[in-house]
Amino acid sequence: MEVARSDADGSQLGGVEARGVDPGVIGSGPGTRALRDRQRAKVYEAENLVHRIFDRSAEFPVVEVAGSRLTLPVERHFATLESVQRYVDAVLAMPTVGACWPRAAVPVAVRERSGQQQADYQRLGAVLAVPLYAGNRAWALRELVILHELAHHLADTADEEPHGPAFTARLIALASDVVGEEAGFLLRTTLWDNGVQVGSPRSPNGPTMHP
């Protein structure tokens, strides 16, 4: 798999940019049905922190999280759209992913997103659009951003809250299975600390909160 170093700071994440509309509503344009997205800002804030920790992992490979010392796994960075496509195909083909989420059987097409600053998943057609560079930085060509978009793809229904408890549960499970258990633990703890509701593991049902 082709890899490349990235100096991304993770200041923006995959998803829908909502300028000039209620930031808690997704799909509020003509011909779309509005979906509440109450946790979006909190999820992005937590992921930005996790990204920054991984960005410094070469210098600080061991971190302390919730009283536990973690040795961070290596996060993949990609050089081309083709390498992202191979990665997406490999993740969806994982037996653990297919066993948990039926939509793993639906292939995802990766394409370049021109003139945009964030990755985006479109359920219609199952397209993952990735900006190759923004300000001379390939910040979106990193594993955690791609897994964020795949967590959207694996939703059972189109009317699920975009960054709700079911989404965060899938994202944590993907990070644990694909990047490493330490990545999943770091992400889960950071989401909890940021007040994000996380669904039951491997299940789209029911939010749980950090005690």
Question: Secondary structure elements and their pairing?
Answer:
Blueprint: E1 25-26, E2 35-36, H1 40-55, E3 62-65, E4 68-71, H2 81-92, H3 95-100, E5 109-112, E6 120-122, E7 127-130, H4 143-153, H5 165-179, H6 181-193, E8 198-199, E9 207-208
Helix pairs in contact: 1-6, 4-5, 5-6
User: What is the number of helical segments per DSSP (H or I, 4+ residues)?
Assistant: 6
- What is the oligomeric state here? single chain
CATH superfamily placement: Metalloproteases ("zincins"), catalytic domain
Overall geometry comes to: globular
Q: Which sequence of strands runs across the widest sheet?
A: 5-7-6
Portion in helices: 25-40%
Number of domains: 1
- Mind telling me which CATH architecture this is? 2-Layer Sandwich
In percent terms, what proportion of residues is strand? 5-15%
In terms of structural class, how would the helical and strand content be classed? alpha+beta
Distance between the termini: 40 Å
**Care to count the β-strands?**
9
Largest sheet properties: 3 strands, mixed
Gyration radius from CA atoms, angstroms: 16 Å
Order of helices and strands: EEHEEHHEEEHHHEE
